[in-house]
Amino acid sequence: MKVVVNARFLTQPITGVQRFAIEISKRLKKHLQDDVVFIAPKGVIHEDLASELNVRIVGLNQSHLWEQIDLRIFLLKHNCPLLLNLCNTAPVFYSNSIITVHDVAFEVYPQTYSKKFLLLYKYLIPHLVHNAKKIITVSEFSKSEIIKFYNISADRIEVINNAVSTDFHPIENKNLQKQKYFLTVSSLNYRKNLKLVLEAFNLLSKNEEHVKLYIVGDLNDKAFSKYSLDDFGIHKNIVFLGRLSDKELMEYYSNSQAFIYPSLYEGFGIPPLEAQKCKTAVIVSDIPCFWEIFGNSVIYNDVHQANQLKDKMQLLLTEDFRLKFVIKGIENENRYSWEKSNKNILRLIKSCY
Asked: What CATH number is given for 174-333 in this structure?
């Protein structure tokens, strides 16, 4: 048994963090075959993927307890192999490991998380980054944040970027093509800055009554502190879509005027890259991480300026202006690939032996 992968992500709904784990895991299985073993608790919800990875279900516990007790016991019984953790958390008292810290948003915006989540991560992450052999993160910005908060030497941290699945592609939808709409993906985490989009859309709709705003995402995640959307829910042209399948998401990306992602803080930001893969113009917030990942391929907006965002949405109703950023987006998205990221992880695994 050469490498064990902590596959607890198979019990979780898919966000950017789980997407990273899934795409890397599929490629590790292809390259390492029998030299990689995927271990998960009971309660797997992605059965097809578990079958593809030939996952072993071990232990009686679930969630964090499984990681700290059952997974660690399994590792100790199997001569302490190298453990790869792709989704932020890992067994605290196990040092032969590589961990992935996608961002430290909970340190920067603690008020946006539940007390339970915050207590757990404030304990886990500092211990994990100091105990692990190597740390993966997804951007140079996140690397600098980990160094700043935990006083970790830079040579222990490897930047391995996110990418977009090769399955993502533009999909025409005649019903959606008949509409003019903007799209955003969000949760009720304060740092996702959904209210800015809603305020800007309210301003825009005073002159553009036919334009709609579609909002994709889970608005019921208990990990996040919430704020009220009561002032916006009654607007007839604001539609909350909830979670969508990848095919549905591609359709909404592909036929929109633009995708808007105004986060206050991110470690990378997969959704804007997905939008670019679907040939969609993108507006993001003017924060350091996005300048690193997107360069001049997107339109930037101040995180607090709803009027400014309204003006940029207005510009994107003009086809020539919109197409300019569609082309730039395609060029940018081509810089990232899961194959490239997987090669970097294989190299990192080899360096730990």
From this structure: 3.40.50.2000
